[in-house]
Design brief:
The structure is a single chain. This protein is of the alpha/beta class. About 25% of the residues lie in helices and about 20% in strands. The protein is built from twelve helices and 19 strands. An eight-stranded parallel beta sheet has the order 12-11-10-9-8-5-4-13. A six-stranded antiparallel beta sheet has the order 14-15-16-19-17-18, covered by helices on one side. It has a three-stranded antiparallel beta sheet with strand order 1-2-3, with no helix packed on it. Helix 2 packs parallel to helix 4, helix 9 packs parallel to helix 10 and helix 10 packs parallel to helix 11. The structure holds alpha-D-galactopyranose. The site of alpha-D-galactopyranose (GLA) has 9 residues, from loops.
């Protein structure tokens, strides 16, 4: 229940302020998914405003995404074929597989759900989604949250109805349905930008910022917390201005696909963006392809590890009706998820690279570090001559290490300890 609400900015964080709030749920974000607009509790000191900025008796909370959002999205597997039934099946399987309890709580419908507008301009879902409110109720009844997709343009990327000139109306409709997450994809708005500011890149970028801000304000106006996910492929260094337009996450690249070259290229190219990630605001290297295409076991493990090291949103994209135990174990590895979801909210970066071997480190709460030794090469590597670079990570001498994927405590290791890293594989350690 909420008595009043509003937005405030504190230390660069946009906070949702509510007069009355109830407890915290999965990921410390929202509870009572079944009960409509749910409340969110603060997770981190950074997200807490000063006493002076706090209205009396008010609970202050980051809107959503205190840790990188976790869930599932329809696009990577189902693309334009997704239906209401696929979403319900996925919701059921998120629960029965254990994924919900591992943190995957958002069920996100991507493009191709949109129908036409009615006489009042209200967006309708198409015949694949006969009753969006009933679907939201179903998803919420499973303790999950529902996400949806639109574009600031007149058309989405798959040429369905977009939100141009209907922003407030659409946000209100999403709130009425019980939507908890919006992915807002630039698509045809690129054409609007070019038409309105021809040969003026700065003017075009301004239009883009305004379009994203407009939908943010429309969401705020509904009073319903929704994760706001920007999708414009990293244009105009979105990480620099995403937080100012209310984004909880922003895509940093073009689309991922289910092959090692594309996945690893995207993941590796995130080095340097780590300073822009923080609780409430995450770099998004796109959704997971774990379990899709022909990714091998080691490639799936590398994918999951790289995204965890990046504090990336973990939005699975596989067909859960066909998920093998092997893929389930990768997606639900508790220690890898804990690295991604670490409360410090720091994105990792590359510490050292030599040929195909790269060593990445991610600071964790309490002074530990996740250390990933990747082998992007075509043959196994024994790391001959490659140090772990522990000193460069801030460790003075030997450290105590845990091997995450082997689920094994290694005891003390030193800078010259060698690991054998398989082709396209990784060794993931937590050291302290
Ligand atoms: C773009 C996005 C994808 C997906 C499709 C849907 O390509 O980057 O993630 O949402 O549009 O049409």
């Amino acid at each position: 229940m909420r008595v009043w609400s509003g937005m405030m900015r504190v230390g660069g964080l946009v906070l949702f302020v509510a007069g009355l709030a109830v407890g915290a749920g999965a990921q410390g974000t929202q509870t009572g998914a079944a009960s409509g607009a749910a409340s969110i509790q603060p997770r981190t000191a950074a997200a807490r405003p000063t006493a002076a900025a706090t209205p009396r008796n008010a609970a202050i909370r980051p809107v959503v995404a205190a840790t990188p959002p976790m869930g599932w999205n329809s696009w990577n597997y189902f693309a334009g074929k997704v239906t209401d039934k696929d979403i319900r099946d996925t919701a059921d399987l998120l629960v029965s597989s254990g994924m919900r309890d591992a943190g995957y709580v958002y069920v996100n419908i991507d493009d191709t759900w949109e129908g036409k507008r009615d006489a009042t301009g209200k967006i309708q879902s198409n015949e694949k989604f006969p009753d969006m409110k009933a679907l939201a109720d179903y998803v919420h009844s499973k303790g999950l949250k529902l996400g949806i997709y639109s574009s600031p343009g007149a058309q989405t990327c798959a040429r369905y109805e977009g939100s141009l000139n209907h922003e407030e109306q659409d946000a209100a409709t999403y709130a009425e349905w019980g939507i908890d997450y919006l992915k807002y994809d630039l698509c045809s708005y690129g054409g609007v930008m070019k038409a309105q500011a021809p040969n003026d890149p700065a003017g075009q970028n301004k239009l883009m910022h305004e379009a994203y801000e407009k939908m943010h304000q429309a969401i705020v106006k509904t009073g319903r917390p929704m994760v706001y996910s920007l999708c414009q492929y990293g244009m105009d260094s979105v990480w620099e201005w995403g937080p100012q337009v209310g984004a909880n996450l922003w895509r940093t690249t073009g689309d991922i696909s289910a092959n090692f070259d594309r996945m690893s290229l995207i993941g590796r190219s995130q080095d340097g963006l780590e300073k822009y990630a923080a609780p409430g605001h995450w770099n998004d290297p796109d959704m997971l392809e774990v379990g899709n295409g022909r990714l091998s076991h080691d490639e799936n493990v590398t994918h999951m590890t790289l995204w965890a090291m990046l504090a990336a949103p973990l939005i699975a994209g596989n067909n859960l009706t066909q998920m093998t135990p092997e893929i389930a174990a990768i997606l639900m590895n508790k220690e890898a998820i804990a690295i991604d979801q670490d409360a410090l909210g720091k994105q990792g970066n590359r510490v050292y690279a030599e040929g195909p071997v790269e060593i990445w480190a991610k600071p964790l709460k309490g002074g530990a570090k996740a250390v990933a030794i990747f082998n992007f090469g075509e043959t196994a590597s024994e790391m001959r001559g490659i140090r772990l670079h522990l000193k460069e990570m801030g460790f003075a001498g030997a450290v105590t290490a845990r091997d995450v994927w082997a689920a094994k405590d290694l005891g003390k290791i030193k800078d010259d300890t060698k690991f054998t890293v398989p082709r396209h594989g990784v060794v993931l350690l937590v050291v302290r």
